[in-house]
Each structure stands twice: as structure tokens, then as C-alpha cells.
Amino acid sequence: MPEVKRLKCSEKTKTLAELAEDLKAELGAEIVCDERLLNDHAVLLCLEQYYFRCSNYVALSVMMVDNDDCREAVLAGFAGGDGLLNTSLGANRSFVRKALKVLEKAGFSEV
Q1: Residue 84 pLDDT greater than 90, yes or no
Q2: pLDDT tens digits, 11-24
Q3: Cα Rg for the chain, rounded, in angstroms?
Q4: Which residues contact 13 (CB under 8 A, 6 or more apart)?
Q5: How do residues 31-82 score in pLDDT, each as one tens digit?
Q6: The pairing of beta strand 109-110 with beta strand 30-37
Q7: Which residues contact 74 (CB under 8 A, 6 or more apart)?
Q8: Rounded distance, CA 32 to CA 23, Å?
Q9: 16 Cβ contact list (under 8 Å, min separation 6)
């Protein structure tokens, strides 16, 4: 099953570009898309990683937006499912948790 987490951060200790680089370095996944949007006030990252437990690639999309008073992020892990029940054996959740830990170090918390 897909896994989606929404996060917020009020402290801006790093730029969005630095946060994106942290995610790419920590996750060690294949980068599908790395786009800066809205005059560098938003970043879209799409990554994929092979998980042996489900014998499939799992995708992770990360959208981070820099608002006036806070930052918001949405993490969506998907595509790791297989079969009629679309079972990912926890791989989607695991990929999202890895990204969540990186962003929590930067001050983000779940909404």
C-alpha cells in the first residue's frame, strides 16, 4: 500500500537545495527527478530504490515548499506493490521512513 506523510518545519536552518542534497546523499537511491520550482521556493524530488523483500522498485516523491512562516513537505512512497492486493511487504513505508528521519534531523515534524 502507498505511504504518505505530511510534515512541517518552522525553523529554517538549511536551504531547500541543501535539504534535497541531504536526502539524496542519505537515501542513496536512484534520482529520477530533481527540480527546483517557484523561484527556488519549492523542490520536487522523485527517487527509486530496489527492495529485495518485494522484488520490485519502490518510488518516493518528495515535495518541499518554502512558505513565509514555515516549510511544508509531503513524502509519498509507492509502486512497490505486487499482485492483486498490491502488497509491498512494508517497502513503501520503509522508504518513506528513511526520508522522514533525514527531514526530522532538519527540524521537520509530522502534521
Answers
A1: no
A2: 899 999 999 999 99
A3: 14
A4: 106, 107
A5: 999 999 999 999 999 999 999 988 889 999 999 999 989 999 999 999 877 6
A6: unpaired
A7: 4, 5, 6, 7, 61, 62, 63
A8: 13
A9: 36, 40, 41, 42, 43, 64, 66, 71
